[in-house]
Amino acid sequence: MTILEANNIFKVYGEFNGERETVALNNINLLINRGDFVAIMGPSGSGKTTLLNILSGIDQPTSGEVTIGGENLNEMKSDALAHFRRKQLGFVFQDFNLLDSLTVKENIMLPMILEKKNLTEMEEKIHELASLFEIKSILNKYPYHISGGQQQRTAVSRALVNEPQIIFADEPTGNLDSKSSTAIMECFERIVDKMSTTVLLVTHDVFAASYCQKVIFIRDGAVHSSISKTTNRNAFLTEIMDNLTLLGGR
Ligand SMILES: Nc1ncnc2c1ncn2[C@@H]1O[C@H](COP(=O)(O)OP(=O)(O)OP(=O)(O)O)[C@@H](O)[C@H]1O
């Protein structure tokens, strides 16, 4: 079942500070199905973050449209879009974006409080996610007292509490060591397997991308190619590196 559809997406940034206009996205078309686990890769400046921001309704395309679960993001008024994003989409960022003044548990609860869920429902959900991501023992700690990996697992739990249709992650392993990167990619694997959540991430990290089922390569704002995992993760990792070499760039 198609969950996200992007049709003829163009993004042109206007002239700024004497710089000429930039065509950041040049006719992108994408179909993402429920339960897909997809990485977007490409050289620096190829348009990855711009694409993720447009697919997730953070930014508007210059032309083209994005639908998620059949709803056209570009036709929604800003209040409706904000509500849709809060309820239907989950976000994970490179720098975790946790609130330092709230405990791990309170950070995870926040999106449910905004959705006015009842206390029993919130407690049950937190228990389920904290068990799944092995963060039960740190629920009452503050973000500055836990490791980067634990912070990112908290951020993934927070992204999942309202059972979103799709999780968007921008460089989720960018600030993590290799052990924590493995743990977070295994978390994504688990939610795709167990909950059929759809995960779409942008990454420079070949190791992280090798956990996905599919990698879409973009260059100069356009889809260049895509590959799907057919054998094991190590073979897929080699295939991703070969494709990146062909793609060029840093
Ligand atoms: N707000 C903006 N105003 C003007 N140009 C922008 C803006 N944001 C991005 N760009 C330009 O659009 C192009 C795509 O940028 P984008 O950040 O999407 O690339 P990226 O692939 O995510 O890069 P990186 O891997 O370095 O993060 C680049 O040429 C960039 O300079």
From TrEMBL:
Molecular function (Gene Ontology), one example: ATP hydrolysis activity
Phylogenetic lineage: Bacteria, Bacillati, Bacillota, Bacilli, Bacillales
Pfam families: ABC_tran
Protein name per UniProt: Peptide ABC transporter ATP-binding protein
Segments traversing the membrane: none
All copies of domain ABC transporter, residue ranges: 4-245
Source organism of this protein record: Ornithinibacillus bavariensis
UniProt keyword annotations, A-Z: ATP-binding, Nucleotide-binding, Transport
Coiled-coil parts of chain: none
One GO cellular component term noted in the UniProt record for this chain: membrane protein complex
Similarity comment: Belongs to the ABC transporter superfamily.
